[in-house]
Design a protein that fits this description.
seven-stranded mixed beta sheet, mainly beta, globular, 124 residues
Length: 124
């Protein structure tokens, strides 16, 4: 039904920027909320940001608010995560997810579809 593929991760120095992309396939992309989550080694997967179907509403976790920006281009079936002023603690595998029909948008278990993840490593 829905397939998600993340890209744009890599190695960046603290204070630098990266833009992640999540390309989606499936008829429902334009009509569902999308989210970004991240998981560091030895830690639980945590919410980073989410965006409503039209792009009119965005939501951010406190640790990334003011530094990360989520956006979407429904014509391209793509959601983005612009990451600025990166910190060492931002190092993680970043996942995009689609359609939190089963619960709150900030909970990983609420989402029906997930990408494979892309590694972001921030160095000092």
């Amino acid at each position: 039904q829905v397939q998600l593929v993340e890209s744009g991760g890599g190695l960046v120095q603290a204070g630098g920027s990266l833009r992640l992309s999540c390309a989606a396939s499936g008829r429902t992309f334009s009509y569902v909320t999308m989210g970004w989550f991240r998981q560091a080694p030895g830690k639980e997967r945590e919410f980073a940001a989410a965006i409503s179907s039209s792009g009119g509403n965005t939501y951010y976790a406190d640790p990334v608010k003011g530094r990360f920006t989520i956006s979407r281009d429904n014509a391209k079936n793509t959601v983005y995560l612009q990451m600025n002023s990166l910190k060492l603690e931002d190092t993680a595998v970043y996942y995009c997810a689609a359609d939190p029909r089963s619960g709150p948008y900030l909970a990983p278990q609420s989402y029906d579809y997930w990408g494979q993840g892309t590694q972001v490593t921030v160095s000092s």
